[in-house]
Amino acid sequence: MALIGIQLVVSLLAASIMQKMAPHYSFARWLLCNGSLFRFKHPSEGELCALAGKQMPKQTRRDRRQNGESKPLTVPKDIDLHLEKAPVNTIDALVLRFFLEYQWLIDFAVYAAGVFLFTECYYSYVDASKEVNIGAIWCVLTVLFSLKTLHTLMSHYFSSEEGGERSVCLAFGFLSLLVAMLVLVVKEDYLEFGLESGFSNLFDNLEVFARHQGYAEWSIPVTKLTVKLGLAGICSYIGALLAFPGLRLAQTHLDAVQINSGRPHIQLLLHVSFLSPVIVLILWVKPIARDFLANAPLGKTTVTLVASETFDSMRLWIIVVLCVLRLAMTRYHMQAYLNLAQKWVEQMKKEAGRIAAIDIQRKVTRIFCYLTVITLQYLVPVFLILFSTLALKALGDFSWQSGAEQTPGVTPALLIPTAAPVLPGGLDEDEEGMDDMDEDIQATVARLSEAFTALRSVLTPLFFRGFFAFLTWWVAACQVISSLFGIYFHQYLMQT
């Protein structure tokens, strides 16, 4: 197995470029600070006093606080307040909550996509079946880092004094656990993940590997029921992570559709983008997707619309296109979120009474401060689906071309590479030192090759097909559950 090759060179080059270019150019900064997004500035106390028809007090807020005057400046709620717009720039973005986490994850996902595209082109021209697919490793790392980012955001909700966010996460976690246990008992005739054959292949390969290592009496100490219970627990955790992203997506979708009421083509794209997880769910329902396209009823006969061999490639393309569409709709959703400041002001004008000026300023400022959090909640679920699909393609031995994929192997041969022997001979001290270094490098490469060969003998494409297919489907299912509940909450419960 070739470990030190062009793939590793390109991977190290991409990591170096990402580190060097981050302070100068960042795709994450460009996404927010390209001039297309507008934030709302909070009004000053002088502006609020002028709108309220009263004279600005000579003492500033700090002077009143130092003199022991705790009474805040208040204004009527029905003042004619209009917030001033300003484009989001880099200086504004640097003070946002979780901005560093946002910038690093978005940039890493962009470079991971670039490395994956390179490996796909490389594999299309070179027979690199014995090499490690570096692009697949970058995709898996992006999935793991995305889950870690969602965990950081959820821990922020758990650390808050108010218990409402914590209760929502726990409720969606328990609901996801129930749904996952129901899904895992559905037969493969209805949901064609391939989990059963994948885990059976994994257990068989582990036993073969153990016998090759000298453990003749070793057997798997767990059962399929234990594995499914553990997988259901992971699904529950992912469901809790995706609770607030789905709720926020529902709110920004409704606001974005309302804002673009005069642009029907944008509204159509927004609706398709919102319903894209539903399409992903249907793609793995065998009677609706594969069986229907392979044997479409036409009167008393059946017509093959899409051959079963080409359906897997078509499914990959559909998911990638839907993810690209959701990424293209990012700006509309983020602007809809920023418009919540003006929306809140319009709602405040309809209420009676007075409000503290500091409360108006805090509300408007808080909406902008959480812009990167909302952006992460929108983009991370898209990354989970997209890079899980890319990992499914690379590790599951699928192909982008129709009918070109091959049936994955069940149990590959365990071929342990050995280091090349070094021929003895009369050498001086410098040459001996260089030869010793070469021997160490060769021994290290041989050990890494042996480890990767053993890993590939256990984790076969058949296992990866089942695991990443289920992961992609489950992330889409969690988004459907949380976003539809969010639509119901914002459309009906908030209006009652």
From TrEMBL:
Keywords: Glycoprotein, Membrane, Signal, Transmembrane, Transmembrane helix. The chain crosses the membrane at residues 104-125, 131-147, 168-186, 229-247, 268-285, 367-392, 467-489. Its main location: membrane. It is found in: Membrane. It holds the Pfam family Tmemb_161AB. It is a multi-pass membrane protein. Residues 1-28 form the signal peptide. InterPro entries: Transmembrane_161A/B (IPR019395). GO terms for cellular component: membrane. It comes from the Eukaryota. Belongs to the TMEM161 family. This is Transmembrane protein 161A. It comes from Cottoperca gobio (Frogmouth).
